[in-house]
């Protein structure tokens, strides 16, 4: 009985479709779906992650054939960009830009506002500011995930480029300089303006690092110039500020080895844990009940790590260190290799629970770390052209 009823219903559907197709009556069918806006160009459909493993988000993306990835950047755990190009001498580059809003599971193509560039590059600034250099046309800046762009000249470079650098840093007044004898602490504002701290601790200090917690607490470190022989090691002074650098509170000193030339502070997002990190050196702050540092305790396992690129604080008083020897998880008693980060050489914190890992060489691959109580849960995001 059920089979006969199904057959009758199927035949009725066919007849209805046939009669509708030949009818002269006005059609009341819905209008077709609106095509994508001009600011988004799709080739077929957005790519989807073909791998069911959420830790392997690999995609062939809709960019010109023969192009290669110039880089992949993320502004948060969901929003990322990948720029592809292929350039030959004497001709314009083929360029493609794709974005993801779901952490690299799927990508869509964005239409670029130029077509005759002979050199292209991409930077991603704080606040999700996308900056694409397309010589000789200029810089193209987007604040809405590549839907619209604002054109700027090549010279002078746009101030938004500062947003792609660290918000808090120690360096030269000329950002293009490779070194200077009097490196100073700098802050980049939300508008991209770069300026010195409102004030600094007094004394003869060779500044080495400046950072901030999510609540705005600044941590500043520097080698104290006391006239001692360099062979005796370095005395590293540390200060904190809760009023954007107007006043400073001394947070003790640490003794580092002579090899630890540059010691930088690294702080947890909630300001609950602070470390000093440098070549062959790491030390964790011990706080009293008032929140003042009473001692800096060295993690001796770091003495064998000579080349340190950068580091980020993990929960449970641990440190994630990117070095020339790989990525390590360090605590007060040991140093353990992070096997999920074996291809990572540089780290960048995106927010309290997300860290981005970069490979040694420019490619279409990055790694997203979801921070939990156990450390990093890494996901590989990879894109390639057809």
UniProtKB/TrEMBL annotation:
Keywords: Signal. SUPFAM superfamilies: Oligoxyloglucan reducing end-specific cellobiohydrolase (SSF110296). Residues 1-25 form the signal peptide. Residues 25-64 are annotated as: Disordered. InterPro entries: TAT_signal, WD40/YVTN_repeat-like_dom_sf. This is Exo-alpha-sialidase. It comes from Dactylosporangium vinaceum. The lineage of its organism: Bacteria, Bacillati, Actinomycetota, Actinomycetes, Micromonosporales.
């Amino acid at each position: 009985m059920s089979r006969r009823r199904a057959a009758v219903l199927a035949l009725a559907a066919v007849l209805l479709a046939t009669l509708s197709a030949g009818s002269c009556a006005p059609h009341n069918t819905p209008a077709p779906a609106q095509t994508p806006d001009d600011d988004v160009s799709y080739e077929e459909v957005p790519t989807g992650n073909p791998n069911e493993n959420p830790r392997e988000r690999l995609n062939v993306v809709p960019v010109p054939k023969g192009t290669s990835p110039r880089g992949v950047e993320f502004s948060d755990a969901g929003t990322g960009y990948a720029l592809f190009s292929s350039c030959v001498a004497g001709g314009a580059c083929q360029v493609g830009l794709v974005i993801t809003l779901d952490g690299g599971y799927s990508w869509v193509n964005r239409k670029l506002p130029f077509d005759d560039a002979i050199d292209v590059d991409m930077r991603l600034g704080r606040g999700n500011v996308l900056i694409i250099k397309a010589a000789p046309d200029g810089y193209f800046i987007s604040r809405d995930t590549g839907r619209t762009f604002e054109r700027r000249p090549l010279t002078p470079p746009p101030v938004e480029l500062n947003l792609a650098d660290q918000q808090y840093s120690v360096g030269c007044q000329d950002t293009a300089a490779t070194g200077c004898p009097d490196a100073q602490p700098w802050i980049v504002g939300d508008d991209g303006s770069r300026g010195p701290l409102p004030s600094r601790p007094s004394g003869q200090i060779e500044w080495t690092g400046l950072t901030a917690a999510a609540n705005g607490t600044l941590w500043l470190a520097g080698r104290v110039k006391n006239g001692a022989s360099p062979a005796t090691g370095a005395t590293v002074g540390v200060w904190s500020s809760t009023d954007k650098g107007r006043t400073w509170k001394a947070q003790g000193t640490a003794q580092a080895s002579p090899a630890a030339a540059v010691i930088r502070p690294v702080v947890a997002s909630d300001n609950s844990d602070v470390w000093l990190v440098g070549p062959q050196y790491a030390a964790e702050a011990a706080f009293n009940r008032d929140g003042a540092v009473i001692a800096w305790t060295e993690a001796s396992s770091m003495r064998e790590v000579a080349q340190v690129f950068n580091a980020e604080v993990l929960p449970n008083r641990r440190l994630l260190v990117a070095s020339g020897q790989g990525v390590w998880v360090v605590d007060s008693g040991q140093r353990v290799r992070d096997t999920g980060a074996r291809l990572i050489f540089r780290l960048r914190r995106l927010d309290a629970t997300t860290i981005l890992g970069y490979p040694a060489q420019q490619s279409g691959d990055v790694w997203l770390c979801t921070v939990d109580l156990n450390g990093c849960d890494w996901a590989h995001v990879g894109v390639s052209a057809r």
